[in-house]
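Tutorial, part two.
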Amino acid sequence: MNEEQIRKKNLWMFPLGTVGRDMIYALFTNYILTFILFTRALTPAQLMSITGIMVAARIFDALNDPIMGNIIERTRTKWGKFKPWLAIGILSTSVVVYLAFNTRLTGWAFIVFFGVIYFAYSITYTMHDISYWGMIPSLGSDADARNQFTSRATLFAGVGGTLAGMLIPIFTTGSGTIGGSAQKAYGIIALVVCILAPLFLAFTIFGVTETRTADNEPAPPISFKKIIGTITGNDQLRWIAVIFLLQQIGNGIILGGLGSTYIYFDFGYEGGLYSTFSTIGLAVTAVLMVFYPAISRKMHRKELMRIMAVTGSAGYAVMILAGIGMHASMVKFWIITVGYMLANFGQYGFYLIMMISIINTVEYNEYKHGTRDEAIIASLRPFLTKLASALCIVIVTVSYLIFGVTNYTNQISDYEQMASLGEITDEAKLSGIAGIIGNVAHGQTVGLLLSMTVLPCALMLASYFLYKKHYVLDEEEYDRICAELDKRNNRG
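Running the prediction step on this input gives:
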């Protein structure tokens, strides 16, 4: 195959691989707390322990992710440095996630089990996540190629996440629950997703051809000094790390649990409602993902970010006004859903731009220090994503405690447990849960709504202004650096 044929094949094989990965990610990251809340009766101490485990695991990732990136950099096999870790990582992650949703443990025994599982997930998911995104620089170095691979991979990741977000609530909550209880439903879904994830990633493992120039170089030693030096010595990487972290915290709050709880409390315990809310909110981003390469040729990233900031802010404003000023009804539901669609469009525009901005610091690193350090730089993105998700859990947990959410979810979980054991019928379960939700005060639902709109909007705007002021690798500067590197390496 010639170079153009390889590129065309890679443009399909590479993004296809992440569909299943992002289904697993959505299941574990976005629904693990919802699963726990609606299948386990928790004391405040147990809920705080779960939050502490999540935060501790993300702090652990502060070392785990860059170390994994360094290990990948020194991997030398006939399959390259990325693919072995893709295979090992996705298989082990599938086992861990399956176990997480298929246990009958309760109380503190479950908390201990969850701690082991959550740390195991942090390790195993990192293996294939860093390998996957770290592969992009080896698939093309020109700006157009980066935009194509990044936007298409992000699009397919969105497909996986959207499918999970659409189907999981339908089959785990309300009248469509598989097996009659949330406990059984989540277990079955985990089995299906954990089979699909390795099958999809096989497209990347067996179908992608990457450049392996680094394979001819000596393997760099694993060194904390190297990891820290790469991150701290690259000023553009430092700034984009802070900016990306702020945006990811804001972007993850709704899907991190607050969104589903708010929808169930305000509009009813029916998975189809949250599925509609989340699916419409996520599906609209596909438009941007498909057309981003074309848009990027005509519009600079900072100008596009300005448009996304205005759009996202308008969406959050619509959600707040409808949530506060209207009584619960389907009209209110659809207005809030449209608001979320606009907010999410802005947030995902930010996400796509920042993904490319992080990757572009590879050439900046080579320009300043003479080394690309692709895997180490790529390891920063998943670490920041995981850290952001942990901080989102803190925000969600604090919101739950402030607004007394567990007073209601503990009662709901009792009904779910009785249904799982066959002690009550589905009809009795749904009737009992409807009575519980009917007792939720309007002020509590408004509090949840404000928690999932005001802070995300503020963080999104903060990330925009910081990006505009401190990130200098715009299109012209990046092209200048690449041209200079071509001269240095006698490629021009």
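The chain is about 80% helix and 0% strand. In part three we will examine how such features are distributed along the chain.
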